[in-house]
Design goal:
By secondary structure, the chain is an alpha/beta fold. The protein has one domain: HUPs (Rossmann fold, 3-Layer(aba) Sandwich). Helix 2 crosses helix 8, helix 7 packs across helix 9 and helix 7 crosses helix 10. The strands form two sheets. A five-stranded parallel β-sheet has the order 3-2-1-4-5, sandwiched between helices. Strands 6-7 form a two-stranded antiparallel ribbon. Helix 7 links the parallel strand 4 and strand 5. It is about 50% helix and about 10% strand. It is globular. Bound molecules: iron/sulfur cluster and zinc ion (ZN).
């Protein structure tokens, strides 16, 4: 099936409305680029947001790719400057957090938690109904395997092309239009369409456990990766889910599973 048809089917499955105001998280990479391009092509009401992590030349190149994409698609772009808003670049924030936690938390885990926190807060402030991210089938298969290896498969039970069980006035639903699309197919598509994007790997992704799992999965044919997802979807409803009650963080007021949100437990403690 063609990539565009597959994405259309996913959007139909999650009942995405053309009236929804969608904020697309744009990193400058191929996945978020294709997400924005297709949502716009299919007539959805989108804007972009770019979190500028201020990680030197890499961040500058990402920013330039995002700017060009938004100009080409004629969509509004919001910029969140981590240094201006949080006082320091992601590199500095990360090393400060790592030294506090004695280096036990990996780069991507810290960066991922902070970016999620920013996206929810900004999307709500700007009155968007949904946040769209560029997660693809390879990312999701990696997450399932990571959760298998760590014995926390219940965390994957809530994953899907739209966030599940998280209805709350402060929580903005996240959608993943490329949830069923292989990374290789996205790579081919972005080249074919000559979309502006930055292809360099993040210089800070070096110590992530996810990279090890990705390297392992890369050796498998696409059909096996699809099977990981397909077979997991068949059994996921039987996995006992964690209590998904949403509280508000006592420090920042954002949605949290406990008394303190994950971002504040990293940054403030
Ligand atoms: S690869 Fe990791 S460190 Fe780099 S931007 Fe993504 S989450 Fe952050
Ligand atoms: Zn908080």
């Amino acid at each position: 099936m063609k990539l565009e048809t597959q994405v259309k089917n996913t959007l139909k499955k999650i009942k995405l409305s053309k009236k929804d105001k969608i904020l697309v998280a744009l990193s400058g990479g191929k996945d978020s680029t294709v997400t924005a391009y297709l949502l716009k092509k299919f007539g959805y009401n989108i804007s972009g947001i770019h979190i500028d992590l201020k990680m030197g030349k890499y961040s500058k190149d990402c920013f330039n790719a995002v700017k060009k994409l938004c100009e080409d698609l004629e969509i509004k772009l919001y910029i969140y400057d981590v240094k201006k808003e949080m006082g320091s670049s992601m590199c500095y924030l990360r090393s400060a957090i790592q030294s506090k936690h004695k280096g036990t938390i990996k780069n991507c885990a810290i960066c991922g938690v902070i970016k999620k926190w920013i996206l929810n807060k900004e999307a709500r402030k700007l009155k968007f109904d949904k946040i769209a991210t560029g997660h693809n089938l390879d990312d999701e298969a990696q997450t399932i395997l990571i959760n298998v290896f760590k014995g926390s498969l219940q965390l994957s039970a809530t994953s899907g092309p739209i966030t599940k069980n998280t209805k709350d006035k402060k929580f903005i639903s996240r959608i993943k239009p490329l949830f069923y699309i292989l990374e290789d197919d996205i790579r081919t598509y972005v080249k074919k369409k000559k979309l502006p994007m930055h292809d360099e790997k993040c210089p800070c992704a070096i110590d992530s456990y996810r990279i090890q799992v990705r390297n392992f999965l890369e050796k498998l044919p696409g059909k096996d990766k699809k099977n990981i997802m397909k077979n997991f979807e068949k059994i996921s409803h039987r996995i006992k889910r964690k209590n998904l009650k949403i509280n508000y963080c006592e420090i920042c007021g954002e949605p949290a599973r406990g008394k303190i949100c994950r971002k504040c437990s990293l940054v403030n403690l």
